[in-house]
Each structure stands twice: as C-alpha cells, then as structure tokens.
TrEMBL record:
Protein name, entry field: histidine kinase
Organism: Neptunicoccus cionae
GO biological process: regulation of DNA-templated transcription
Cell compartments where the protein resides: Membrane
Catalyses which reaction(s): ATP + protein L-histidine = ADP + protein N-phospho-L-histidine
Histidine kinase domain: residues covered: 560-779
PROSITE patterns referenced in this protein's UniProt entry, alphabetically: CHASE, HIS_KIN, PAC
InterPro entries: CHASE_dom, CHASE_sf, HATPase_C_sf, HATPase_dom, His_kinase_dom, HisK_dim/P_dom, HisK_dim/P_sf, PAC
Domain CHASE residues, every copy: 97-198
Annotated Gene Ontology cellular component terms: plasma membrane
Residue spans crossing the bilayer: 269-289
Domain of life: Bacteria
Length: 800
C-alpha cells in the first residue's frame, strides 16, 4: 500500500510541477512584454512633454536663440534619457515662399546644424503629417524619412506638433487673435526607441512592430532579431494593438530560442525522478524499520529526561533569537513562534499566529518540499511596501512521541535582493552599451593598487585571465609596443600630478608580439585626497586601427596627388601654352586643334587635383579663410566678367542684379569668387540653349542672400539629398554629356559655412533651378535697405 501511495504521489507531484513550470514561464513572458509596453508608453509621453515644452517656448517668444535651444536640450537631457530623440527644432513657413516649411532652429549642434535651412515642404510625407497635426491639434509622426544629416542620407523619424498662440484678451482690453506660428519637431531614431524598451528584449523576446492595423503586407518597421535567427516555433506569443505616437501600432511578441531554452520544461521529469528515488528510499527504509524499532524504544526511555532539559533551553534560545522562528506540526499548523516572527509576520488585522496554518501566513510555501534553504517571495499587501523576500531554512524533526515537527528559520532579505537586482541590471546594461559601442572602460584605484575593467576591455585586449586578478590593468603593459609604453605612462603621469586635465595617448598593442593594433586611450583623475594626491582614475580605450589605416592611405594619396601629379601638370600646361603661341603664327589647324584638346583636358585635370586638395584641407581643418569687408557690387561684376566667356560658349545669356547701394559683406574674396564661379558655371552648363542665367542678391536682416537661377532640366528629386556630397553627380541624359568632378558643390558648401553662411537650393524639373547662399553684412554697412531697388550689370560696371 505504501508503494502504491508513493507512486500515486509521484505522478500527482509531476503533474503539479509541470503546471507550475508552465504557469511560471507564461508569467515570465508576460512580465517582459508588459514592462516593454509600459516603457513604450513612457517614451511616447517623453516625446509629447518634450515637444509641448518646446512649443511653450516659441509661444512665449518666437525669437528663441540657439543658446536657449541648447539650454532646453540640456535641461531635458536629450541624449541621456535613452528615448531615441536625436534633435529638436522649429520649422515655419517662409515669408518669401509661403509654400515652404523651413527649419529655423534645431539643437543640439550635432546632428542639428546640417538640417538648418532644410525645406520640409520637399517631403510629401512630412507635408501630410504637418497638415494632420494642424487639423487635429495633436502630434503626428512620419516614421521613416530620408534626411541629409552631416553629408549623409540617414533614415529618421519626424514627430511634429503645431504651435499656435491661442486667442486671448490683453491687458488693455483688446482681443489678441489666434496665430499659427509653425511646428516644433523631434528627429527620432525609431530603432533606438524600440530597441531599448526592455533589458531582456534583445535576448529573451523577439519584437516586430508595424504602424498599421491588421497584418501588414510590408516588412515590419522594427525587428530586433533578424528573420534568419528568429524562433520558428515559438511557444509564447503575444499579439497586441496599441495607440502610440498618434497612430495605431501593432506589436508582435514571441519568445526567443534562448527564452525557450531556459524555461523549466524538464522540471516535471526531474520531479518524477526524485519521487521515484524517494519511493525507492522509503522501501529501503521500511526494510530496516523493524530492526531499528526495538533500539529506538530503548533510546527513547534514556533520552526522555534529557529532552525535557533541552526543551527548556531550546525555548529560551528561540524566544531571544534574532531570526524569525516558526514551528509547525506535520499538517502545517503553527505551534510556536518567537518574538522576531511575530514582528515579521503579524499585521494590524492579525490577532495571533498560533493555531493558524503556515500556508495562510506564508503563501507560496510548499510543505511537501524536502528540508533545504530557499527563498520565498510574499505578495504585496496594503501594509507592506511591495513584495517581501524571505530567506527560509526548513528543518523537519520528530518529537519524543514520534510526531513530526517542522521548524522554519526566516530572515527578511528584501532590501538586499532589490539592491542585488538593481546592481545586476545596471551592470548588464553597462556591459551591453560598451560592447555595442566597442569601448573598453577601466577604473584604477591608486590607493589600493587595484583596478576594474569592463568585459569589452578584456575582449579588446584579448585578456581572459589576469596574473593579478585584483589589478588586471597591469596585464596591458606587457602587450604594448616597446616604443609606445612611454607615451601611455607619460600621459597618465602628467594627469596624476595635475599637469593636464586629461590623459590622452595612442599606442600599439598585441597579444602575440605581431599584428599590432592601434588603441586610443582617454583617461581622467576623478578623486583626490585633501593633499591633492590622485586616488582614482577612470578612462576609456578604443580600437582605432582602421582609422589609422585610412588616415595613412589618405595622406599617401594626397601626397601623391600634390607632388607626383600637380607638379608635372603645371609643366604640361606651361608647355602647351608655349606650343599654342608658336602655332598661332603657323597655319596648322589640325595641330592647333590637338593642342586645344590637350589644353582643355589638362585644365580639367588640374581643376580636379585642386578640388581634391581643397577637400582634404577642409577635412583636416587646414583651410584658411581670410575674411574681411568686401564690396558686394564689385564682387558680382568681377565674377560676371570672368564667367561671361563660358556663358557665351554654352549658348546662354547672363543677367546680374542686386539692391542699390554700396553694401559690404564679410567674406574671403578668393573663396566667394570660387563659390560663385562654381555655381554660375554649373548653371550655364545645365541651361537650355537660348535661355539666360540670372545672378541676384537680396538683402535680409543682417545678411545678403546671393542666388543663381537657370532654366533647364533641373535636378531629379531622388538626387536632392546627395547634391552636396563629394563626387555626387545625378544620373541623367543631360548630365552624361557634361563633364565635371562632382566636388564643386561639396567644396562650395564647406566654404560658405566656414565664412558664416548657409547654402541651399530649390529645383523644379524641366523649369528652373535656384542655388543660393548667404553672407553676413559687414559691421560698417547700413542695415536700413530697400529690397525693391536693384541695379543691372551695366550700371554695376559703370559704378565700378
């Protein structure tokens, strides 16, 4: 009968454990999903509060400076809140062109400055979202738009909010009408917004997100795990439809392969094996029961008096113990508790613990579990501050009468467990962030001669185990190139003694004595004692091997272009010039034709070499700008005279007009002529035969806007984001017949921005194209101007 009971109990326990394991797995999956959904709601709230606060600034005053924008960006910690916001800004319709929607203000500086002046009206998705936001008065999102940021075309999200000053009665009793000011917007990294919803998201769950209802036919907007690595047969799935960012959002959560792997699916079989083993043990024990019975009877009589004494001592110890102690019978009925247990388990509604069942007091406790030490989590109540975590040690023993007693020793470890969880989560996030950014971090304690390094640092240095576990940073010195060790130690020594604020150094490192890799180290002392002695230094180290290789390739290329190409080109041009002058006297049309072709090609090659060298100077920050006050009309006359022969060669006319008056602009004459020559030559090159290219200047507040307009095929819309990139040329039939380097507009943009201006364009296919840039007015120029009065080119030449 005992064997049958044990087998039945084993089967029932196996079924119960399986249900518990399945329920626990489902609960774990639900907790991860609910945490991520809550995080998504908080992210949406952050976007709404951020744009709401920014709208309030522009409602209070439209003249918000870049400094105030920077202050607001720092106040909301735009990069530190992990919400996916890259930049915030303000866009409004232009006075000259009401159909435009120009970006007026944007911060922070990176990536913001490259977007200033962008016309959002050129993006149909943004126009549609702006119209919806203004009609509804709420936020409107464009989830995926290609924006030209820092010379690159990047996929970003745009979140718009209309800014309207409401109708209000002023202090003098008049009614101030409602006024639409424009739109505040945020540039979002949608991948970052979705990827940081939950710490366990990238490993334990797979997320796919669509901005649509139902099952979309298009690929998901976001997918944290590639389709090839996704779990093909997930055991846990959650399909959710929520409203976020002002649009319906579908979220499909599935358990990852790793999540399925760590679930306790084997627990029922382990329980069955344990129960069967316990049954075998019970059978074995029964065989010895009869043999031991007589011995036990004799021992009971001998130990009775001793037990009475021990009982008295035990009660004294239990009552005065710091641990919470509870004693129960075999059915879980509480028999005795000490003072610590009364304080831990009693609530205002509890009269007493005696005579109650232990399962009522400790929900989740399984009395059938064997003796062991384990953790028990009590659910939150109205009298507790959240759930309570206990460390429980269970001991089963027999009384002198042979009755089973169970003693539970309990300690409240809630605070310790919460702190341990927080520390573990923080360390996990920190390591993941550093590994993703490929940055190694070290922390040196000079007082204790110890150091702590990140997981990415060990991966970068290929150090799996340290000779001195307390100071793994020492192992780095043995891997540094002998010629570079002094660089690192000297930089650290200078920072430690206070000679410099930061310790920056480059050095080579290798774990095999060959195949050296370049490392960039940046450290700072963060703790000093009262006498000024450095106590602690933290720093980062990054592998810059590829960057060093590219820098050397660029240096070699520029040196080759400068010394091996430009020098012989100069000789070739001079020789062709002499040859042309000699052929002018001889009547040799074929030879002259060949010389002209050679001169044209050498001139093109010489221009390309100069453009490459200029571009390298700008990238290296070595381009010199000699800005001073220059006469606007003289500059336009000079450049128009230079470009006139080329315009005639292209079969187009040239018109010039600027505001009347002797206006002076702050610029470098050589560089602005280089910009204007490039824009005018492009305009002539791509104009229809018989049309006229117009060079004009318009006075604005504190600056001059110079524009070049031509009539021709225009610029394809898909090429607009790449127009200012180096070596970028539109692939059109008209362009295939034109010869160019693809560097002129990129160089022009850098020159204009270096002189304090901005540059842009607007093109209507098969109609007209306008390239414009701005220059600041000189301080001695009269700012009171009349925009309607202009002079033509003949009047300018006469004045000059």
């Amino acid at each position: 009968m005992v064997i049958g009971f044990c087998l039945t109990a084993s089967i029932l326990a196996t079924i119960a454990v399986k249900r518990i394991a399945d329920h626990k797995s489902e609960d774990n999956f639900s907790v991860i999903v609910e945490q991520a959904v809550t995080s998504l709601s908080r992210t949406a709230e952050i976007y709404e509060r951020t744009l709401g606060g920014l709208a309030g600034l522009f409602i209070a005053s439209q003249d918000i400076s870049f400094v105030e924008m920077d202050d607001y960006a720092r106040a909301i910690n735009i990069h530190g809140n992990q919400s996916g916001i890259n930049a915030i800004g303000f866009a409004s319709h232009g006075e000259a062109d009401p159909d435009s929607l120009i970006v007026r203000r944007i911060r922070p500086r990176t990536p913001g400055e490259s977007v200033i002046g962008t016309d959002f009206n050129l993006y149909p998705e943004i126009v549609k979202a702006a119209k919806t936001a203004r009609e509804t008065g709420t936020l409107a999102l464009v989830p995926d738009i290609k924006l030209p940021i820092n010379g690159e075309l990047l996929s970003k999200g745009i979140l718009l909010r209309p800014v309207t000053r409401i109708e209000r009665i002023t202090s003098d009793g008049s009614l101030r009408p409602a006024e639409f000011l424009g739109y505040v917007f945020a540039i979002l990294d949608m991948n970052r917004a979705f990827a940081t919803l939950s710490p366990a998201q990238n490993e334990l769950v797979e997320l796919r997100a669509w901005f649509a209802e139902g099952t979309p036919a298009t690929p998901p907007l976001f997918q944290n795990i590639p389709a090839a690595d996704a779990n093909q047969n997930p055991k846990f799935v959650r399909d959710m439809h929520v409203e976020s960012f002002g649009r319906p959002l579908r979220l499909l959560w599935t358990g990852s392969n790793k999540f399925d792997l760590i679930q306790p699916f084997r627990a029922p079989w382990v329980m069955l094996a344990l129960c069967l083993a316990l049954t075998a043990l019970i059978v074995t024990m029964l065989r010895f029961m009869n043999r031991r019975e007589r011995t036990i009877t004799r021992l009971v009589e001998e130990k009775s008096n001793e037990l009475v004494t021990r009982e008295t001592e035990r009660r004294s110890i239990i009552e005065n113990a710091m641990l919470a102690i509870v004693s129960t019978d075999a059915n879980g009925q509480i028999l005795q508790v000490n003072g610590a247990a009364q304080s831990l388990l009693l609530t205002p509604k509890t009269i007493g613990l005696e005579s109650r069942n232990i399962v009522e007091v400790l929900p989740g406790l399984d009395p059938s579990e064997p003796d062991s030490r384990f953790k028990l989590t009590l659910p939150a109540t109205e009298y507790s501050h959240g759930e309570t975590i206990l460390e429980v040690e269970k001991n089963t023993w027999l009384t002198s009468d042979g009755e089973i007693r169970v003693t539970l020793l309990m300690r409240d470890i809630t605070k310790r467990e919460r702190q341990a969880r927080q520390i573990a989560k923080m360390e996990e996030r920190w390591d993941l962030a550093l590994i993703g950014a490929q940055i190694g971090v070290f922390d040196i304690d000079f007082e204790k001669n110890t150091s702590v390094v990140s997981k990415m640092w060990r991966m970068m240095m290929n150090i799996t185990s340290s000779i001195d576990p307390a100071d793994p940073f020492k192992d780095l010195l043995d891997r540094i190139h002998p010629d570079d060790r002094e660089n690192l130690t000297k930089a650290h020594r200078a920072c430690i003694v206070g000679g410099c604020e930061r310790a920056e150094a480059r050095f080579r490192v290798s774990d095999s004595g060959s195949d050296w890799r370049w490392i960039q180290s940046d450290a700072i002392v963060v703790e000093w004692d009262e006498e000024g002695t450095a106590l602690r230094m933290i720093g980062t180290q990054v592998d810059i091997t590829d960057r060093i290789r590219v820098e050397r390739m660029k240096q070699d290329f520029v040196a080759t272009v400068s010394h091996e190409l430009r020098t012989p080109l100069t000789s070739i041009k001079g020789s062709l010039g002499l040859l042309e002058s000699q052929l002018a006297e001889a009547n040799l049309p074929v030879a002259k034709r060949l010389v002209d072709i050679a001169q044209s090609n050498s001139e093109r090659l010489y221009t390309l070499v100069n453009d490459i060298l200029d571009m390298e100077k700008m990238n290296a920050g070595q381009m010199q700008i000699d800005a001073k006050a220059e006469c606007l009309s003289k500059l336009l006359v000079l450049v128009s005279d230079q470009i006139a022969p080329y315009a005639a060669q292209c079969g187009v006319g040239l018109d010039v007009s600027i505001p009347k008056g002797n206006y002076r602009i702050w610029t470098d004459q050589k560089r602005i002529i280089q910009v204007l020559t490039n824009l005018l030559s492009n305009a002539c090159k791509f104009s229809d035969q018989g049309t006229r290219v117009r060079l004009s200047a318009q006075l604005l507040s504190g600056e001059v806007r110079i524009a070049v307009t031509n009539h021709g095929p225009g610029i394809p819309e898909e090429f607009h984001p790449r127009i200012f990139q180096p070596f970028a040329q539109a692939d059109t039939k008209a362009n295939k017949k034109k010869v160019g380097t693809g560097l002129g507009l990129n160089i022009s943009r850098h020159l204009v921005e270096s002189m304090g201006g901005t540059i842009g364009f607007k093109s209507i296919p098969d109609q007209k194209t306008i390239f414009w840039f701005t220059c600041p007015l000189a301080d001695d120029t009269d700012k009171n101007f009349d925009e309607t009065e202009t002079e033509n080119i003949d009047q300018l030449r006469a004045a000059s």
